[in-house]
Predict the 3D structure of the following.
Amino acid sequence: MKKILLVITMILAFSFSSFADTVTSDDVTVLIDGIELDMHDEEQGVNLSPFILNDRTMIPLKSTIDAFGIDESQIEWNHEYRTISIISNRGDTIRMQIGNENIYLNENIFRSNVVPVIHNNRTYIPLSIIASLFNYDVEWVANDRSVIINPSTVVMKRFDLEFIYPVLEGFALIDYVNESGMYSFVKMDIDRNNELSSVEIELIEDDIYEVFDKYLKTELLSSDDFKILSNKKISFVRYENEKAIAFVKNNRTTIKMECVNFKIDQLKDLVESIKEVRN
């Protein structure tokens, strides 16, 4: 994806005293896929705490690595302009500036009611806004003052299916639809130039045995060339070198998956996580 570089020239003055007056609480827990987000700074040997600012949960910038499964190289801090750049696993670029209410997603500008801040010599960013730009839903549970984000759970609305996929290992859902109507999970290299691993998912409106038999005849294969992928779902898989193809029964339809450099245990977990959802 072509990155649109945005040059931010205005630096806003930031008052630490006024910032301190607007912090309402530091008693908040952030849960990512059901696990509390680790905010320990190994370099400094200190634990960093999230806090509430103008009704928004703020987290340390480096915590986005664990929260959204990105690499440290995907985060850039410009000391001169006090700007922050985050490249998502989908290749989108998010740009922010300390004290600036404008947040950029590629060429689009969004205005936030809370700005990135420096707190205890650490850069903090608004969690829910960044999560939304990453296309993740955010849930606030008032009773136990927790923020819940499940980045590894994705709903494919056209298929009425929900999957759990390894986003925290660097995979991203490509939510555009290609000519065949497939969704894709892709893991790119650090430079965002080459695909390291991918899974393409297609929903076929026929029973699995009909689809499977047709595939065997077309490819001149036999059922002996396939193995049972999961005991929890009717499914067949064939691995050949770095590629795999799998068929999964989904009521009266069939889910077809074509994988490249995708581990069999990952594929099994993906298949067993399939659920039907109705929106």
Observations:
- Residues 1-18 have pLDDT under 50 and may be disordered.
- The first strand starts at residue 23 and ends at 25.
